[in-house]
Design goal:
The complex is a heterodimer of chains A (766) and B (156). With 766 residues, chain A is α+β, with helices and mostly antiparallel strands. Chain A has 19 helices and 33 strands. In chain A, helix 14 packs parallel to helix 15. Chain B is globular. The chains are: A alpha+beta (766), B alpha+beta (156).
Chain lengths: 766, 156
């Protein structure tokens, strides 16, 4: 008999039907009678003092019901940690970045609300701005926030081992400066909310949030209400990828306040242009990487000095910089590591979380630099990786890095082996190196990402499994499927544990009035943490069912089993009944029992050590090896990516279709940030605020993607699972950059590698 | 106000709309067919794709007045009762969707493609959906779904 009956099966997602028929409702699809529309007035300056705001003309426009400015929020500010609550819902006395919101209007329709915004008069005193993070750190540069000396928002100084001694003893030491692009999430659903502050004092919102319980707490704090009076109802989410949809936005706070003032529901839908100029995007990071190695390529030490463009507020920045540091000791053995990181305030839009959070920057730098060192030493790219890769710990043992990150499984070596046996790498010298103007190259990378992220608090993660009388099951969790497929995975886990089919499990989307509290969808935590909670809840429900069966058959409950919707006595499988019959027996027994299993996750509970960078950032770690084949047009500089082969150690793939979709999607997103995507900024102004000019990959741009599954069966994950959603956005940039080097002989250190940069570099090389 | 007549998913609607209203706004807000999505509002993302007189169009770029007298098909018009259209079925089975926001527009572009080119090459499929952005899937499973839909449609 197969090990599993649901886990590992190629089953479609549970919400597929609603999504292909257009029935799935997203935040902007909700409406209520008498609903008003909210629009925001945004700042035309990146850095300016607000001298006065006159809303009287706007208020007199027929159809306008209310106008709010910062004073209406009574000085409330918010942030990721108590010490970093620096952000008001609307700018108070100063705007810190271009298009920061300064006022909100509620009117009978969108056009009137927009017209009213134009009638609000704001007097600004423009202030000198600061736009380059290294410039911002100079003593003489104006401050973005008065309290932040040298504009430093977050700084860490960690030191493990003795890097200076190691560099002195190394055969080779390299120092290089890398920079990552100003990339954004690029989901197609602009953030939206429908909010109703009802006359009894309850707030109900339908909002596009991938972490709805963050929003729940923000609203309670902002409106000074107990949490029980906040109800966040989760619509379908049109993509998340971290950042903006993890947080609350000016439009959210304004819609709720305007509803409180007017007594009517208020809807706010951001435009794509507003989204692109204000989104909490990936930090652009400058990484000064110093790396030492022995003659045989064995790494001796890394010292990373990171300067990250934080933009106007702190947001989740302390976590971004933590992640960019703690995981540098993965996936290669590293005996000495030093990290000096600065997140710097500028008058740019806010830097925050995005898929591959933090790790993608420093791993790109370290991976490329290791390639450079290998080239100088004349060591093969595969060999240098195999020599340094962490071995898969023997079952029952743990590998610990110098900063006390612990691994129970590591499939990197197997992944590298499989990827390099694949034809893209193996036959790279058998295919032509040059055809006309096109120079071909193949690159390789080996990387890691965390799963089951830890937090600073609010780690509660639970599930409830309710067995219905008809033999179906309701699964209730606080987890949010923002497109990644977690609802399907969680249902598969419940079905597997209970011995029923996927279609018998119905998952309910988050409604904070009913669902258990949960941190949200970030740090690839849902499958591992909510998955474990679901597994425990299903086991508890099953225990209750088995007891009912045992009582009926007058046997012990450990002698009863459920498989494929059939309940039977293990020693006498002929004695059986269908699952739905047992459900009825269990639910109708006595005066009527309720079969309800609850469970919570025990992973990820120890808090992050931001100050010293010691310990785990995740519950477990995925490992990825990837090859990429590119063609570079040596005349125009255009890069075409033709192939990816990606071997992922995700522990075990629970839902293969969903997992493959995550790996493919993240790799294409990673390709975008490597060769296309960048906000072009001019003194705080975004010059490419449309999807025409901010270049995301189209269907005609993508490579053929081949996936290889490495099974390591991690002990700390449901059915051995680790993460699948973010590994390939970390592995793709170094694989592509290495391939471009193979094609051109040039190591590019700044992303994205646009045709202009290629042409410039080729000319300089001549 | 402009008096127009739209045939949407086989149903006739007599409407009075301001001249600046887009077809997308009318579909979503007047007719309540929210399956068609608004992404960029500038014709760059394809989320609002509908079929007008047999051609896939960005409904955010079409004025409602221009659609007067035209036949419009939206995502809600594809399934036959409970039976999914073969393209919808293929997207379900082959994982051609994740968050689902681009999906209605993507399926409408795929339908317009297959109506005109019933057995497209992979290159033609890629070009057929080049106007539809998807940030989740990396397109691989969308292309697979459309290839599978070609098979499904042929079997029919």
């Amino acid at each position: 008999m197969a090990e599993f009956s649901v886990i590992g099966e190629r089953l479609p997602r549970v919400d597929a039907r609603e999504k292909v028929t257009g029935e799935a409702k997203y935040a902007a699809d909700y409406s209520l009678p008498n609903m008003l529309w909210c629009k925001l007035l945004r700042s035309p300056y990146p850095h300016a003092r607000i001298l006065s705001i006159d809303t009287s003309k706007a208020e007199r426009l027929p159809g306008v019901k209310a106008v709010v400015t910062a004073k209406d929020f009574g000085g409330w500010t918010w942030g990721w940690m108590p010490a970093t609550r620096d952000e008001p819902p609307l700018a108070v006395d100063k705007v810190h970045y271009m298009a920061e919101a300064v006022a909100g209007v509620a009117a009978i329709d969108e056009d009137t609300a927009e017209e009213a915004c134009q009638l609000i008069r704001v007097d600004y005193e423009e202030l000198p701005g600061v736009f380059e993070p290294e410039e911002a750190m100079k003593e003489s540069t104006p401050r973005v926030h008065d309290y932040a000396k040298n504009n430093i928002s977050v700084e860490y100084h960690w030191n493990f081992g003795d890097v200076e001694k190691a560099f002195a003893e190394s055969y080779i030491v390299r120092e290089d400066r890398f920079r990552t692009s100003r990339a954004t999430h690029g989901y197609l659903e602009p953030p939206a909310i429908l909010a109703y502050y009802d006359p009894t004092g309850y707030i109900t919102v339908w909002a596009s949030k991938q972490s709805p319980y963050f929003h729940y707490r923000h609203l309670a704090a902002c409106f000074k209400l107990p949490l029980s009076k906040i109800r966040v109802i989760q619509p379908f989410i049109g993509g998340g990828f971290g950042g903006t949809k993890n947080d609350s936005l000016a439009g959210d706070f304004c819609a709720v306040l305007l509803s409180k003032i007017t007594g009517k529901p208020v809807k706010y839908v951001e435009s794509m242009e507003e989204e692109l100029v204000t989104s909490r995007r990936r930090h652009s990071m400058i990484v000064y990487s110093k790396m030492g190695a022995k003659k045989d390529g064995t790494l001796t030490a890394i010292h990373h000095q990171v300067v990250a463009d934080g933009g106007g507020y702190t947001a989740v920045g302390p976590l971004s910089l933590y992640l960019a540091g703690f995981a540098t000791t993965l996936p290669y053995r590293l005996p000495n590591f030093k990290y000096d990181a600065y997140r710097v305030f500028t008058n740019n839009p806010i830097g925050a979380a995005m898929r591959g959070h933090g790790i993608t920057h420093t791993r790109f730098a370290a991976e490329i630099q290791m390639g450079m060192i290998a080239e100088e030493l004349g060591i093969d790219p595969v060999e240098v990786r195999m020599r340094n890769a962490i071995d898969n710990p023997k079952p029952g043992t743990i590998y610990e890095t110098i900063n006390k990150v612990t691994l129970k499984t590591c499939g990197l070596k197997e992944a590298i082996q499989k990827v390099t046996e694949d034809p893209i790498w193996r036959d790279r010298n058998k295919t032509p190196r040059k055809e006309g103007d096109i120079s071909w190259g193949v690159g390789l990378s080996g990387t890691s990402y965390l799963g089951g992220a830890r937090q600073m608090g609010h780690q509660a993660c639970a599930a409830i499994v309710r067995v219905c009388e008809d033999g179906t099951v309701n699964l209730i969790t606080g987890a949010t499927d923002c497109g990644q497929g977690s609802d399907t995975v969680l249902c598969m886990i419940a079905a597997e544990e209970l011995g029923i089919k996927l279609e018998d499990v119905n998952i309910k989307r988050v409604d904070t009035a009913y669902t258990p509290v949960d941190p949200g969808s970030y740090g690839s935590r849902v499958t591992i943490l909510a998955g474990q909670a679901t597994q425990k809840a299903a086991r508890e429900a099953k225990r209750q069912l088995l007891e009912a069966a045992a009582k009926t058959w007058q046997v012990k409950s450990e002698d009863v089993e459920i498989r494929e919707k059939k309940v039977f006595i293990t020693s006498d499988p002929e004695r059986s009944m269908p699952f739905d019959k047992l459900a009825r027996i269990a639910c109708y027994s006595g005066t009527g029992a309720v079969i309800l299993g609850t469970g919570y996750s025990g992973y990820g509970l120890e808090p992050l050590d931001l100050t010293n960078g010691i310990g785990n950032g995740g519950t477990s770690y995925s490992f990825t090896a990837q090859s990429a084949r590119v063609g570079v047009d040596m005349e125009t500089g255009k890069i075409t990516v033709t192939d990816f082969t990606i071997a992922s150690d995700c522990g075990r793939l629970l839902s293969p279709i969903q997992a493959e979709g995550q790996i493919e999607g993240a790799s294409v997103q990673g390709m975008g940030q490597t060769i296309y995507e960048d906000f072009i900024m001019d003194r705080g102004k975004t010059l490419n605020p449309t999807l025409l000019d901010y270049k995301m990959p189209h269907s005609t741009d993508i490579p053929n993607i081949k996936l290889i599954d490495i099974v390591t069966n991690d002990p700390d994950g449901p059915f051995g699972a680790k993460e699948t959603s973010e590994g390939s956005i970390v592995s793709t940039p170094p694989a592509v950059v290495s391939a471009i080097h193979d094609a051109t002989g040039i190591w590019f250190k700044e992303l994205p590698i646009t045709p202009e940069k290629v042409i410039k570099a080729l000319k300089e090389k001549l | 106000m402009k008096q127009i007549r739209l045939m949407v998913n086989g149903e006739s609607h007599e409407l009075s709309v301001p001249p600046w209203r887009t077809l997308l706004e009318v579909i979503r807000e007047v007719l309540g067919l929210t399956g068609t999505k608004e992404g960029c509002s500038l014709g760059e993302c394809g989320a609002c794709t509908v079929i007008m007189d047999g051609k896939a169009v960005n409904s955010c770029l079409v004025l409602a007045a221009e659609a007067d007298g035209k036949q419009i098909v939206t995502i809600e018009g594809l399934a036959d009762g409970n039976k999914l259209h073969p393209i919808q079925q293929a997207f379900v089975e082959h994982g051609g969707l994740q968050c689902g926001f681009c999906t209605p527009g993507m399926i409408m572009s795929a339908k317009a493609l297959l109506d005109e080119t019933p057995t497209p090459t992979e290159e033609e499929i890629r070009r057929g959906i080049a106007g539809n952005l998807c940030r989740c899937t990396g397109y691989t499973k969308i292309i697979e779904s459309i290839k599978a839909a070609v098979g499904n449609t042929e079997e029919k």
